[in-house]
Amino acid sequence: MAEYSYLSEPDPEFAPHMAGLMAIPQVYDIVERRARFELFIKASKTSYSPGLPEETEYLLKDHQIDVESGKILARTLVPISKAGSNDTYPLMVWLHGGGWTSGNVELDDYQLRAICVELQLSIVNVDYRLAPEHPHPTGLNDSYMAAAENAGLFRVDVKKGFIIAGLSAGGHLAAAIAHRAREDPFFEERPITGQILQVPALLNVNAVPEKYKSSLLSYEQNEHAPILSLSSVLWSSGQLGGNPADPEVSPLLYPSHRGLPPALIQICGLDPLRDEALLYDRILRDDGVKTKTITYPGVPHAFQYFFSTLKLGRKWEEDYRAGLRWLLDGAPQ
Q1: Cα torsion 307, 308, 311, 315: sign
Q2: What CATH number does residue 93 fall under?
Q3: Where in the sequence is the domain holding 261, given as residue range(s)?
Q4: Which residue, among 144, 111, 129, has the nearest Cα to 40 in the 3D structure?
Q5: The model's pTM
Q6: At 48, which helix (H) or strand (E)?
Q7: Which stretches make up the Alpha/beta hydrolase fold-3 domain (predicted)?
């Protein structure tokens, strides 16, 4: 989208960090890549530890969920009412990022604890199985099972809100789950009421329809973007497996998006995934889906983990919470 090319201009606060990030070599060995991803987890805990609520304000519990050919971990967070009453809460199912190949429930753990207490929201943080050992659709099926299994979580009332949310690869899973649940009778009485897609991966680079190619300039403009480059996107997509043209791999390609829940979409300007998310916003709105879409010019994919103190980092967190409240309020116009 040529009209959005200005979003690639580095943010003045972020610009001094560009050279250092660009000097970090890309890694395509799965073991080394997962080891490096631990830096994201460490950065996340450092960024969000000042906002941790008191442990008396929430209940954390790790559960083992039965999935196809195994079990996965789901970490639940439930607010503790200060009045000591048996209040019930809306539910958010969270799916972490990591290019489908890395990450776990620790990545966003501190941030989710804060959101649980601030917004009085029950949260399920899903440790879906990773590619390439578990190729598509394993991670999607795991996440879908976790969403269905926890719809009846203790002290949850999904009539107060049922949100599916994720970042990057987790954003892809959240978008696919929203579509799958739309067709599933199980969710008729417990419909998903909102989706949060943060820097989502929505269209496999190897399955871009001809009619959209001119709209995806960010693939080229941000070919060497820091944190996430185009080559890294290609590598991760290859590790995921599946047919690139399958809508469950590329949710943008679903023939219809009508009837989906409202969506909060957060997009970084210096990100190869930028234009597919902007295009998805347009497609959703054309199909009658309410969206609240926010862009962060001149910062890279998942910048907030490392640069939470920047003005845009603080705005990201404010928008995230405001978007959650918007969804929980029924996404008013």
Answers
A1: positive
A2: 3.40.50.1820
A3: 2-327
A4: 111
A5: 0.97
A6: helix 30-48
A7: 92-304
